[in-house]
Specification:
76% of the residues lie in helices and 0% in strands. The chain has 14 helices and no strands. Helix 3 packs across helix 4, helix 4 crosses helix 5 and helix 6 crosses helix 9. It comes from Paracoccus alcaliphilus.
Length: 365
């Protein structure tokens, strides 16, 4: 992934000028109002009291904030990949992709875990979510180990692949990033680092847990590699059919799996606030809409070009999140730490970008 020093160029996804900042969040605000109203209605139906209604309303709002704080780095990485995609696939990701993200990861994914773990049908899982939320939450909690291993492995591969790139020419933390670029020519070095990390963490677990952790991690690694290979094959086929087409269905699949990996922590962590699947879906769905809005804004305003270290901060946050997910196989780490940690790294990279712009006379905005 080459990073040049060209001046930032902002522009809409369809070639139109960038919109005012607040315009990007119009749909997010609408979904927020509808979601919170739906949450309040659900709270009234469940409890029949004003206090119960306000409680569910508040939980939905907190879950939305949790999702936004955990997924800001996701928006930056989405924007980084989205700017390489053709306009057609950009629109497809921002429409179908968000539907998959909201309904697939926030509703279908938790149900699928229970279906597999409890060996029951999808309808029985839905009934359990509505009638036996405590049992549903217990099954989700028990499935946390393989989810952490799978998601942590995939995200670590995403983060390391950004830095182990021999064409990368913009460095933020130079003393480490230059070395990573230097060793990027060694084939499979990212895979080796991830496997060693997985082996270290699995060695602290019992025999059965170690086997589960390692197996899930291998599946996470294979998923990353398969998405890369499949994406390359699909996009190269697309180039044959449509000259110059880049970043099509392969990039779309990559972003969907990436979003899934980012969502693991938020979905599991949400059960600490409520055991009701429908409240979780409302809260995290609201947050997902803000991630979509931030992604569009970052692309159209050319923010990633204007603030040269912002991507670096996001990918450092991804690596940090992957390590946190691995650590959660040993101890519970509150989601607020995960969210604040990523936001802090991105904030520091943003501040470093502003300093660089001022020192080099670059234009911000």
């Amino acid at each position: 992934m080459s990073q040049g020093n060209n001046p930032p160029v902002g522009g809409g996804l369809d070639g139109q000028p960038p919109r005012p900042t607040m315009k990007y969040f119009t749909w997010a605000f609408i979904v927020t109002a509808l979601g919170l109203a739906l949450g309040a209605g659900l709270g009234w139906q469940m409890t029949g009291t004003v206090w119960g209604t306000l409680s569910v309303f508040f939980i939905c709002a907190v879950l939305a904030v949790l999702e936004i704080s955990l997924s800001f780095d996701n928006a930056i990485v989405n924007a980084n990949k989205l700017k390489e995609m053709t306009p057609v696939w950009q629109r497809r990701f921002l429409t179908w992709g968000i539907i998959i993200a909201v309904f697939g990861m926030r509703i279908v994914f938790p149900l699928l875990i229970v279906v597999i773990a409890a060996n029951i049908g999808p309808w029985q899982a839905m009934v359990m979510a509505a009638a036996q939320p405590e049992e549903y939450a217990r099954i989700m909690h028990d499935a946390h180990l393989p989810i952490a291993a799978f998601g942590g492995t995939f995200l670590m591969m995403v983060g390391l692949s950004f830095f182990f790139d021999h064409e990368k020419d913009v460095h933020w933390v130079r003393w480490i990033e230059r070395r990573m670029q230097h060793y990027a020519t060694i084939r499979g070095i990212e895979v080796a680092i991830v496997l060693v990390t997985v082996l270290i963490f699995s060695s602290f677990l019992g025999t059965h847990e170690s086997h589960v952790f390692f197996s899930a991690a291998i599946w996470g690694l294979l998923t990353f590699l398969l998405v890369e290979v499949l994406g390359g094959l699909l996009d190269s086929s697309q180039e044959v059919l449509h000259a110059g087409a880049k970043g099509g269905i392969g990039a779309f699949l990559y972003l969907e799996v990436l979003d899934a990996s980012f969502s693991f922590d938020g979905v599991i962590g949400a059960f600490a606030l409520t055991q009701n699947l429908f409240i979780i879906a409302i809260g995290l769905g609201i947050g997902a809409m803000y991630v979509r809005s931030m992604t569009i804004m970052l692309v159209e305003k050319g923010t990633l070009a204007q603030y040269r270290y912002l991507e670096h901060g996001a990918f450092y946050a991804i690596i940090a999140l992957s390590v946190i997910m691995f650590c959660q196989s040993q101890v519970h780490i509150p989601e607020v730490i995960t969210g604040l940690g990523g936001a802090t790294l991105i904030g520091i990279s943003f501040w470093a970008s502003i300093r660089w712009n001022r020192q080099n006379g670059a234009v911000e905005g």
